Amino acid sequence: MIIVEPTVHIGGLVTGGIACTDTGTPHFVGGLSAEFFDAVAAEKRRAFPGPAQPKMLFRGESIPWRQVRLWDLEPKVARRVFEAWVAKPGQSLVRAQRVARVERSGGRMQAITLTNGERLVGKVFVDASYEGDLMARAGVACTYGREARAEFDEPLAGVRGPHFRKFYDEEYLGKPGIEYTHHGQFSAEIPARGKDGKLLWGVSGEPQPAEGSADKRIQAYCFRLIATQREDLRVPWPKPKRYQPERYELLLRYIEAHPNISFARLVHFSAIPDGKFDLNASGPFSIDYVGGNFDYPDGDYATRDRVFADHVDYQQGFLWFLGHDGRVPKQLRDEVNSWGLCRDEYPDTGHWPVQLYIREARRMRGAYVMTEHDILTRNTKEDSIGMGSFVLDSHWVKRFVDAKGNVAIEGHLDESIQLAQRPYEVPYRSITPVRKECENLLVPVCLSATHVAICTIRMEPVYMMMGHAAGLAAAKAARTGKAVQDLDVAGLLRELKEQGAVLHKAEARKVGSPPPPPADPPPAAPRPPPPGPEKKQPPQPPPPPPRDPPPPPPPHAPGGGAPPKPPPRPPPPPPPPTPPPRPPPPPPPPPPPRPPPPPAPPAGGDLPPGAPGPRPPPPPPGPPPPPPPPPPAPPPAGPPPPPRRPPPARRGRVAVICPVLAPAALL
Q1: Could you please report the per-residue DSSP string of 161-180?
Q2: Ordered mean pLDDT values, 10 residues apiece, the chain (667 residues)
Q3: Which of 65, 195, 302, 587 to pair with 472, CA 20 to 30 A apart?
Q4: Cα torsion for 451, 453, 455, 459, to the nearest 10°?
């Protein structure tokens, strides 16, 4: 199997900054996704065997913070687990390359050419990227932006009004808290224009479209940063290459309206091990770059690189402005400068992650389109390959001028709709293209869904579970030569369950314990056709009937490198013969082992119901390094230039375009 990673760090957002993983209800996360998080949790318990109360230093006080949960992880540890998984025999990892061209014959893809000129030939392809470039270049129908409310009869669809109008008081804004400040407009009336009559930076002067109408705008992106107040670990916030203080005039007016506001109300802090925190956007002006990504989903790579670099400048400028502009109150400047990046995270890229948080980009129009109804009412599927349970979470999309001439902001969905105990099921049909468009492609990330549906599906554990299913289906399709739409779906689901997948609510696992050993698979029963389409739902073909007897399950990685593994499952029979071997490049070596840890305590209980160029891999953890040099420049965006002579074609059963690595762990 050949894995193509568009950056230098594998793992997507799981290693790229989302350290406090948004799971909804972890009990519904199974299969390889659960094995990965359990492996990281086991390594965390080895390194930190005793409970530790996270604390935040705030204006002379030490404030206790929310306890670190089982799956709150350090990105460097997550990377070690992923690197061990992809270093296994039979897998070849290509870093820092993207898809340039796709070759097709009939209804199938034959090969892809990367941006360095290398040609990869495969039997089956998996597009597990955040952007869906392989899918789009293969000619598979896709879209981006927000559908109109009427298209699929979705009450939450389309352009949103500024419907959250909660005004936070000074007591709330003036002290840190673990709550997100999502649900409100600016807690003051702030004129949208300056004294010169010009609109403040970042505020759109376009007339606001009718609520519920379609557009090509998408929710904001940011970088999820790992920050600390530990003096031995803290690296000062870097100044951006292109610092533009005028970008933060609206932020300044927000601060002037609330001069006692805390840094922890302008960004959101979630504790992870070893005195570190995961930073996310919170409130109406934060590290989310509202409106800065509209050219990204369908842009060429030069456009994407420009948007990437602009996001680096915006977010570094946000932090630099708060910490250094003399108009910002001194107590807030001091608070901001008590934080910094972590010296032991991303040391090869200036301690700044290389993965931009692509909350959504393209979405396939596949064999079955998941809509708001599939999340809230029609939430069970006979061909379920995994479950989701996170809230309907869309970040801000646009700032505009309201009827009074003040700044308003729109884009959020109704996060009061709780799904933790009302999970929904994602069907296999939603990761397969329409048959006439492509027969050997699976799309587990930019899957077939509307904007409303993707706002909850888009969580990394769900993507990883979809990736597990896509990897298993790709292996079956490569062995049998059948189209992905013609696989024995019942057999696929049996194998997923044998590998620990949670496909239905009744199968919820106990978090902190290994999955139960597989039971004897029941005999396959004929499946009734799925229910007819709802109002406005386009015709959805039923899942195909079983056509081939279920082959033996392929081997897969039951854990991750150094961490202790769960009790072994019965070994699968050896895989069928593969084509003649090709000389793969040597996989990246696994990192050196950690020093011997203390004995691991018993597993914890249940959780409560959240391209740049290549660089050398980071060093292993160890004693604190000497004081840092001046912070290096942020990583450049974009792939390295192509070589003069393209290397010869490489061949594999399956090619995976994959920052989200669950498929890579399976094949």
Answers
A1: ---------HHHHTS--SS-
A2: 94 94 86 94 88 90 91 94 93 96 96 97 97 98 98 96 72 90 82 96 95 97 98 98 98 96 96 96 95 98 98 98 98 98 97 97 98 97 96 93 94 83 96 98 98 96 97 97 98 98 93 43 37 43 41 33 38 42 43 37 31 37 43 44 55 66 40
A3: 587
A4: -130
Identify the DSSP state of 587: P
- In whole angstroms, what is the distance from residue 244 CA to residue 315 CA? 11
Q: What is the spatial distance between Cα 190 and Cα 207, in angstroms, rounded to a whole number?
A: 18
3-state secondary structure of 493: helix
Of 426, 551, 541, 540, the C-alpha closest to 482 is: 551
Question: 638 — alpha (psi -120 to 50), left (phi > 0) or beta?
Answer: left
Q: How far apart are CA 130 and CA 608, in angstroms?
A: 28
The tokens for 570 are: 């019965």
Please tell me the predicted confidence (pLDDT) of residue 163.
65
Structural tokens at position 537? 């739902």
Phi and psi at residue 86, to the nearest 5°: -80, -5
Helix intervals (H) in 506-594: none
Q: If we measure between CA atoms, which residue out of 603, 648, 660 comes closest to residue 116?
A: 648
Query: How far from chain centre, in Å, is Cα 259?
Result: 35
The first and second tokens of residue 621, run together, are 């953890």
CA distance linking residue 37 with residue 278, whole number of Å: 17
Residue 660: what pLDDT? Answer: 53
Phi-psi region of 370 (alpha: psi -120 to 50; beta: other; left: phi over 0): beta
Q: What are 324's two structure tokens?
A: 């250094």
**Closest C-alpha to 181, from 262, 110, 122:** 262
Please, are residues 447 and 431 in contact by the beta-carbon 8 Å criterion?
A: yes
3-state secondary structure of 487: coil
- Residue-level pLDDT at 620: 39
Instruction: State the greatest distance between any 2 C-alpha atoms of the chain, in Å, as a whole number.
Output: 75
CA angle 665, 612, 82 (to 5 degrees): 20
Distance CA 268, CA 288 (A): 11
Three-class secondary structure of residue 340 per DSSP: strand
Q: How far apart are CA 488 and CA 397, in angstroms?
A: 41
- Name residue 401's beta-bridge partners: 407
Q: How far apart are CA 109 and CA 321, in angstroms?
A: 49
Q: Which of 159, 67, 34 is nearest to 412 (CA)?
A: 159
Q: What's the burial of 568, exposed, middle or buried (CB within 10 Å: 0-12/13-18/19+)?
A: exposed
Whether 556 and 666 have beta carbons less than 8 Å apart is answered as yes
Instruction: Specify the pLDDT at position 591.
Output: 42
CA distances in angstroms from 598 to 562, 594, 621, listed in the order given: 14, 11, 16
Tokens of residue 77, six digits? 């540890």
- Nearest CA among 212, 151, 661, 30 for reference residue 449: 151
> Which residues are CB-contacts of 38 (< 8 A; sequence separation ≥ 6)?
512, 514, 559, 563, 566
Phi, psi of 653 (to 5 degrees): -65, -40
How far apart are the C-alpha atoms of 593 and 574, rounded to whole Å? 30
Residues in the chain: 667
625: β partners: none
If you write DSSP's letter for every residue of 236-303 in order, what string do you get?
A: PPPPPSS--GGGGHHHHHHHHHSTT--HHHHEEEEEETTTEEEEEE-SSSSSSBTTTTTTSTT--HHH
